[in-house]
Amino acid sequence: MLKRSQWLEAARKLDWEFSYVGEEEVFPGVMSGHPWLSHEHWKQWDEPYRTSYAEYVQTQAKKEASLRAVHEALGTADDLRKLPIAWINALKLHAATLPLAEFAAVIGNLRGARFGRDSAWRTMSTLGALDEMRHTQIPLALMHDLVRHDEQFDWTHRFYHTNNWVAIAGRHLMDELLLSSNAIEFAVATHFVFETGFTNLQFVALSSLAHSVGDRMFEKMVNSIQSDEARHAQIGHPVLTAVLKHDRAYAQYLLDKWFWRSWLLFSVVTGFSMDYLTPVEHRSRSFKEFTEEWVIDQYQRSVDELGLEKPWYWDTFLSSLENYHHMVYASAYTYRASVWFDFVVPSPAERDWLRSKYPRTWDLYDPIWQNVTERWEESDVGNDFAVHGTAIVTFCDLCQLVLCGGSPTYNTAETLVRDGKKYIFCSKPCRWIFEREPERYAAHKDVVKRVLAGEAPANLIAMLTRYFGLSFETWGKDATAGDYPWMKRGKSR
Amino acid sequence: MIPLYGFLEGDTIGLLILADEDDTGAVLIQKLQASARVRVKTKARVRLLHNGLTIDPQTTVAQARIAALDRIDVVEAPSR
What we know:
heterodimer, A: mainly alpha, two-stranded antiparallel ribbon, 60% helix, globular, B: alpha+beta, 5-stranded mixed sheet
């Protein structure tokens, strides 16, 4: 019987010389990526986990059994009702945006499994694809199941199949990142930037908040997913190292492009959850503080070690860390019927907490929440549309998210005319990404352009029901119907 | 109708403003402030900017050569 050390390399490293086709035909640049290098340059490719398929199956089986036990013990309506109402809406936000994006990641990993340039890379990507299949099925099983108790959880499955504005933005990112990237861009963008750079915000930081609010199911779910991500994220570093050696400028471009695109997504999904949808008594740190620890420190160290630079827009990024999720949350609160989860108004205590955590910027946002509070105080409980916007909001032609760049003092939206068409971007980095690869992005219409082209209705209710896929039962509302104990109802009547 | 990207100082999001060629600067200001009032209280002393230039409140969209999908800003006017 051979020892593991005697057979493992033969299983992981199984490359051969092609006799009746050329290497470039087997690994065409369009699928394998740039720079195209012969296998000679990739044969040292390695990663630290060196897992065999048998080991993978044994480990995953234990994780599945553990999760199943948690689901059976904690998946009841009573367990859901015990959670803070704001937190349940953080769950709905994650339930919708996570599972089918993970399913797209199966395809990205399978591209690596076929077109990755070394057999060890392809082996690891095969396991990565199995991981992502699991990451699709787990949240679908755990969170879509909650539809029995709350119809908005139907968006766990429904979200990416709609033309909801958040889904359009999500698909614009995930389709490029996970479905259409070649093996090299996928490895750098997904494994190095997205997974290594950002997912600890979810898997470590948000998981700790889930523990604090008593949501053992979400905590266990993300911990289980994290143990897989930690392994297959290792694909990114050796791929980036090879790209860097042969085309430094391209390596820097990939990092800078995907850092910004990933940042906007996490800023909305995780920023909302940490600073608004986790009750203040359960918050240990702010989104900004978690990002400083789990993204900035780690990312800076990684790019330093590789001899690369921070992104050219680093100052813009640091400014957006203090602003962007506040800009989007206040905007989305006042357009909450356009999404599938409910929102809360930050209480005076929460506003004080936010001021202490964002001393440089919070005073720009506080008047908005004061205005929202006063409008509720003048309105009847449950009259959501008395505290809701009706004008059409605007969207970035790159990220497809709302034009919420900058701060209330100055919105950083920038316009561009190209081939006679006008485009608008939420920020300089989004414009820069568009201008680097305009042929990739120029034909995509944002929601406003669809309205102007007659492809989507301009009327708000028609937009919500016929285009965004919502109904009165499922569209977002104030989670308390505007009935907050700290409000002075009828004060201005 | 001429669709414009409107940005009100103090607000968190850009809004689509539908203007007529005959709308004056004052009308554009009023339209943007009304669209954003759920978040931002209306202020009296404001001015309209287009391409970085202040537009007189009596000047029309056509006279100011404001075109479809241009950016306009409504910002606080400097105190006298």
